[in-house]
Design goal:
heterodimer, A: Thrombin, subunit H, 5 helices, 12 strands, about 25% strand, B: Arp2/3 complex 21 kDa subunit ARPC3, globular
């Protein structure tokens, strides 16, 4: 009997183990870059995810749509869609007004903003930690590229698009991910810092000098635009706690809570034009 | 021989599709569910007990790599842990009787715990960071995963017994 026959199980295990160790070893020095192989796996399996979520939602909506009042439901959906886009417009206008821009500037930015929104459904969350990434049902065919800001239905910041981006699906890095960072400013006291995630439901506001004045609980945080990814003035969250950092005398330890909530991010808006919007 | 491997690979691919579907539906229903149980682990455990170590290893590779592709973690960590999970689940289940529900659940829980320990250690080693246990909620994952895996066998047995009674 040949060796393959006698030791089939052991050889399969050894082969697969070596394959994985090589796969991990190749990536580790490169950091978080997505390999072609990983992108290919995402490309193949993300439509399955989309189909599964779509089927469940479809069955649910078939039940409601068929047995409920169909006309009212269709109208309701249309109105919901309109409200979604109007909400984004209102938030955007409010945020821009708060920046004290001139009327001409405001009109110019609104004209630029209109038509740059892509509404997307969330079809999946990160398999290892829900606070890291989500997957949406819009991809490169819908004009989605890397580093595009993503907001929830109330116009609050959710995160940004990252690779892998498939034809009809993309990955979004949430602001709660520990590798995420957003340049923010508090609206009352003007504390400026980088809001980074902890891969939990709270974030940290980093690099605020211990000598800085102000900063109180429930003070709102908005994007500054300094990071060249998120446009200025988007609502991000609120300060929860400000305390002295015993380990670092230079900076304050500030805990912040993002506005977006998992139970309200079934639909999101991707800003396809803006400072991020790369390919 | 080639036919068997091709058949195993195709079966593993279909098993992976089932895992992706379960994971997607659970994530869409409530993201917290993904902390409580791992759909990919349930599928690997179930099919490894049914089909043996080689199939378990191939299915583990596929499910693990898909899990990695849907996450920001290092690509291959879940692939490696699930390959080992599939292989050893299939191997051990061929040598001890894991048919009774309690023994089956206990066996699956032990395998899930070992997989989680390996995943935590590998993540810590590769990314040089500790894993977020979601306030201890993640520690329930092996228990819920084991109960779900054993329930699949219980349901299968129940359907079979009804069929045999009917005929």
């Amino acid at each position: 009997m040949p060796l393959w026959e006698r030791r089939r199980s052991a050889l399969v295990l050894a082969g697969l183990t070596v394959f994985h160790i090589l796969l991990i070893s190749i990536q580790v020095p490169r950091g978080a870059g997505k390999s072609l192989f990983e992108r290919a796996v995402f490309f193949v399996f993300s439509p399955v995810q989309r189909a599964a979520t779509g089927t469940v939602r479809g069955i649910g909506s078939l039940w409601n749509g068929y047995f409920d009042l169909r006309g009212v439901r269709a109208e309701n959906q249309k109105l919901k869609k309109e409200i979604f886009f109007l909400n984004q417009d209102v938030r955007f206008l409010e945020d821009r007004l708060a920046l004290d821009g001139s009327e001409a500037e405001l009109r110019a930015s609104l004209a630029e903003f209109r038509g740059s929104l892509v509404a997307a459904r969330v079809i999946g969350v990160d398999s290892a930690n829900p606070y890291q990434t989500i997957i949406i049902d819009k991809g490169s065919l819908d004009g989605i590229g890397r580093d595009m800001p993503v907001c929830d239905r109330d116009g609050s910041l959710v995160g940004r698009t990252i690779r892998p981006i498939s034809l009809k699906e993309s990955m979004v890095q949430l602001i709660t991910d520990k590798d995420s960072s957003v340049s923010v400013k508090s609206v009352i006291s003007g504390l400026t810092g980088a809001m980074t995630g902890r891969s939990t439901d709270v974030c940290e506001l980093r690099y605020v000098l211990a000598s800085a004045q102000g900063g109180q609980a429930e003070e709102e945080l908005k994007t500054t635009g300094f990071d060249k990814i998120y446009p200025p003035g988007i609502r991000v969250g609120v300060i929860k706690k400000v305390e002295k950092d015993e380990t670092s005398p230079i900076f304050l330890r500030i805990t912040a809570k993002p506005y977006f909530r998992f139970d309200r991010i079934d639909v999101v808006a991707v800003l396809t034009k803006g400072p991020g919007g790369g390919g | 021989m080639r036919e068997t491997i091709a058949k195993d690979a195709l079966g593993a691919f279909l098993g992976t599709l089932v895992a992706v579907a379960v994971y997607s539906v659970a994530g869409a229903a409530a993201p917290a569910l993904l902390v409580l149980f791992n759909a990919f682990t349930v599928v690997v455990l179930y099919f490894s007990v049914r089909r043996g170590e080689v199939f378990g290893a191939i299915l583990g590779t596929m499910c693990g790599l898909v899990q990695d592709a849907f996450s920001l973690g290092v690509f291959g960590v879940a692939g490696l842990t699930k390959t080992l999970l599939g292989f050893w689940t299939g191997y051990v289940s061929r040598r001890i009787d894991v048919a009774p529900f309690t023994r089956n659940a206990l066996f699956m829980m032990v395998m899930s715990v070992l997989e989680m320990i390996l995943w935590v250690l590998l993540t810590a080693a590769v990314r040089l960071e500790s894993v977020n246990f979601h306030g201890g909620l993640m520690l329930l994952q092996p228990v819920v995963t084991a109960v779900l895996g054993s329930s699949l066998f219980a349901i299968e047995r129940w359907i079979r017994s009804r069929k045999s009674r009917g005929s």
